[in-house]
Design goal:
This protein is an alpha/beta fold and about 300 residues long. Helix content is about 50%, strand content about 5%.
Amino acid sequence: MAKLKNADLIGRQEELTPEMLRAKISGENGTYPLVKFLDMNCLRCDETSRSYTCIFATKCYGFFSFMPENRDINKSLVNQLKQSYKDNGYKFPIIKVNESLKIIDGQHRFLAAKGLGLPIYFMIFPKYDVNDVITLNVNQKNWCDLDYLHSFLSRYTRGESEYLPYYLFNKFLKKFNFPITVALEICQGVTSGGPGIKKFRNGDLNFTENMYTSSVYRAQKINDIGEFHPRGAAKRNFVRACKFMISVNGYDHKHMMKKLRLYPDLSRSLREASTMEIISYLEIFTKLYDHKKHAGNRICFDRRWRDKQ
């Protein structure tokens, strides 16, 4: 197939109307014809995927729209991309769209190119929807956890009640100042990188009203103790140590808070450190909690932790 030069491509952009493009997409009998619209050495089409194996280009920016479930636009990232295109050249970054020309992947690249008046190079992935957007970004690690939360919240507000757990989890996040991965540990015992965080990103979060209530109760106690650890109150090891201490049978939270206030010398390292190992936290908690207690009434959080390892 003959190659199309950039000049030919841009010159033909007026021919690429939405109606013509949709006609090309639909094909006959619901199939998607394998037609190369743009053939360039630096671009390749994946013929084993569901993609409509053409690479299109246009400056008709109005063709495209965004998916509300996609992550929020990061203006700083758009500006960085624009500067990169200016400094390093525009090397045909391809965006992915579905048959309705909603952007699946590449919304920041799209906005950067549009802002500079550059052509949009795109491939069409028929029947892709928000689930494919999420799967794509789980695999590519483009999204942060707040992006996933925003996406599922958007679906809940549009009436998809199965995403109620994300509404409740967002409510929890607004109440307490914990990073998402740490908040998940408080709520569900999920560790970063484990199967739980994958379920969160895939839309399978399990978080009920009862779990919300118990998580708030637990988080409030962690916050109370965190007032004496201002540099590390939201960090993972501190939260894990607090969770373990609170879960020990016989733990008395009022007693612990009283000891923290009465014996600042015993908690000095807690106030000064930014983080430490879990066992180090538990050793400090043990010194405070068991201080002046009869040997038979001591809990020894650090020893209990070691016994469980």
